[in-house]
Design a protein that fits this description.
One of its GO terms (cellular component) is cytosol. This protein is an alpha/beta fold and 459 residues long. Helix content is 31%, strand content 26%. The strands form five sheets. Strands 1, 2, 3, 4, 5, 6 and 16 form a seven-stranded mixed sheet that branches. Strands 17-18-21-20-19-22-23 form a seven-stranded antiparallel sheet, sandwiched between helices. The structure holds flavin-adenine dinucleotide and nicotinamide-adenine-dinucleotide.
Length: 459
């Protein structure tokens, strides 16, 4: 074994693993360094365990409507069973990731890697130095914890998956993806859940109808929302944690969780020594081909502060390998990324929001709000929302926003015609599938309202 490689990847998460595998497939001699568990955030403490827990939480809603379909359900929930089942599944996935790296000959080094120069990497544990023609930094991000007194008493998403027991109540600070997804999980599993958010409505940057629709859905499920307030301090209060808010109110909770964003893992990596420039937000600055200010050092995924999503990190890793090791220069198009929030109700979106689109030119908005069939036998009044935004007079589809059951699955498929530049007429050509929620997308007739010269007309 020599210490000289074509490529050394630091971080075996979504982006690093894909890049390492592809580069090795193209004949490069590759090592990948991982200090925690192979698979990274997504597999170990992100997308995968999160979605498994969302499934667990959603039985609550299902049991709720079950009676109206004739079922009698006497259910109880056991947290340790879920945690153990989750652990088994992520351990299986981790092994699959290791096997997929080893198949094309990637050497996996379990250690912490630091950059020592444009072609040098130091292994902290082994005290060994590696040289590499190229270095790929794919170290991901970590939860940001506001520096307040008592912050150490709180958890982040990292710890939430493996709590020894479910708390009786939880206060979650933040209004983004992680806050609303974990509120859904905890509330669904029977925890008295409160979100505290500094803004005036959750999911800033999402379409207004999605934000308000989710707000109503969370409230319906008993989740309390405190707006325009932050946590100022935390203190021990018997077995509970007492939180003091910016308005002076103090209240006890069984647990407190910060979901206040994630910062790129760049600290102490040695990037400054190598001359790698950072963005003002502290991410590694890269060009369209993921190349940093040092030509031999590339970076992909969350550490670059672009879109912090697994499929994006994977695509960046893949295109890096194509560009550098397959003589096939490819840049990732970050302009049209489908994304989902696995809350209850679920959200799936792609493209421009109504507010964004209205400032880009004349647009038509098609909006449907309806009670999903699953709810029609029950007393549940929750509505599904489907919104399609097009250029005026049935032109190109600019945005699609869906709130309700199946939204994530639907939006993935909407991404295909949108990527092809589909118009409203292209969608209309499809024959509806009945009965389904998605059929609304191909049966919209006249616009619900329009924007002309930035002014809303109708609706
Ligand atoms: C709770 C949660 C839920 C999420 N849900 C979704 C979702 O549903 N869908 C979605 O698309 N995205 C989701 N994400 C985001 C997604 O997980 C990330 O965008 C993705 O994992 C980024 O991949 P990456 O390769 O950049 O980094 P990561 O997957 O974070 O991998 C980085 C790896 O580098 C290692 N590392 C760091 N520094 C060093 C070092 N110096 N030496 C050695 N190893 C090091 C880390 O241990 C880690 O394994 C979620 C994130 C969280 C936190
Ligand atoms: N379903 C998914 O695809 C999914 C799920 C989870 C996470 N992710 C990815 O991970 C990223 C990180 O998720 P996140 O929810 O932590 O971040 P986020 O950026 O989505 O939300 C962070 C929230 O914390 C608030 N905040 C930030 N600093 C604060 C402070 N000092 N005090 C009070 N509030 C503060 C922000 O206003 C915001 O509401 C997401 O942006 C997303 O890209 C994706």
């Amino acid at each position: 074994m020599t210490d000289s490689y074509d490529l050394v990847v630091i971080g075996a998460g979504s982006g690093g693993v894909r890049a390492a595998r592809m580069a090795a497939t193209y004949g490069a001699k590759v090592a990948i360094i991982e200090e925690f568990r192979v698979g990274g955030t997504c597999v170990i403490r992100g997308c995968v365990p999160k979605k498994l827990y969302v499934y667990a939480a959603r039985f609550h809603d299902m049991f709720d409507v079950a009676q109206s379909f004739g079922w009698q359900v006497d259910a109880s929930f056991d947290w340790p069973t879920l945690v153990a089942a989750k652990e088994k599944e992520i351990t299986r996935l981790e092994a699959a990731y290791v096997a997929n790296l080893e198949k094309p000959g990637v050497e996996i080094i379990r250690d912490r890697g630091l950059v020592t120069g444009p072609n040098g990497v130091h292994l902290v544990g082994q005290g060994r130095d590696l040289t590499a023609k190229y270095i790929l930094v794919a170290t991901g991000a970590h939860p940001f914890v506001p520096p307040i007194p008592g912050a150490e008493l709180a958890i982040t998403s990292n710890e939430a998956f493996d709590l020894p027991a479910l708390p009786h109540s939880i206060l979650i600070e933040g209004g983004g993806y992680i806050a609303v997804e974990f509120a859904t999980i905890f509330a669904g599993l029977g925890v008295d859940t409160t979100i505290i958010y500094r803004g005036d409505c959750i999911l800033r940057g999402f379409d207004e109808d999605m934000r308000r629709g989710l707000e109503a859905g969370l409230t319906d499920r008993g989740i309390k929302l405190i707006y325009q307030t932050t946590i100022k301090s935390l203190a021990k209060h018997g077995k509970d944690i007492s939180a003091t808010f910016s308005d002076g109110v103090t209240a006890p909770y069984g647990a407190v969780m910060f979901a206040t964003g994630r910062n790129p893992n760049v600290r102490g990596l040695g990037l400054d020594k190598a001359g790698v420039k950072l963005t003002p937000m502290g991410a590694i600055a890269v060009d369209a081909w993921s190349q940093s200010s040092v030509p031999s050092i590339y970076a992909v995924g969350d550490v670059t502060g672009r879109a912090a999503l697994t499929p994006v990190a994977i695509r960046e890793g893949w295109y890096f390998a194509e560009t550098v090791f397959n003589d096939n220069k490819l840049a990732v198009d970050h302009s049209q990324i489908p994304t989902a929030v696995f809350s209850d109700p679920e959200i799936g979106v792609i493209g421009l929001t109504e507010t964004e689109a209205a400032t880009h030119g004349d647009i038509d908005v098609y909006l449907a709000r309806f009670r999903p069939m699953m709810n029609t036998l029950s007393t549940r009044t929750e509505r599904m929302i489907l919104k399609l935004i097009t250029e005026k007079d049935g032109g190109k589809v600019l945005g699609c926003h869906i709130l309700g059951s199946g939204a994530a699955e639907m939006i993935q498929l909407v991404a295909i015609p949108m990527g092809m530049g589909a118009s409203k007429a292209d969608l209309d050509r499809a024959i509806a599938l009945h009965p389904s929620a998605a059929e609304e997308l191909v049966t919209f007739k006249a616009p619900t309202y329009t924007y002309r010269d930035g002014e809303k007309i109708g609706g």
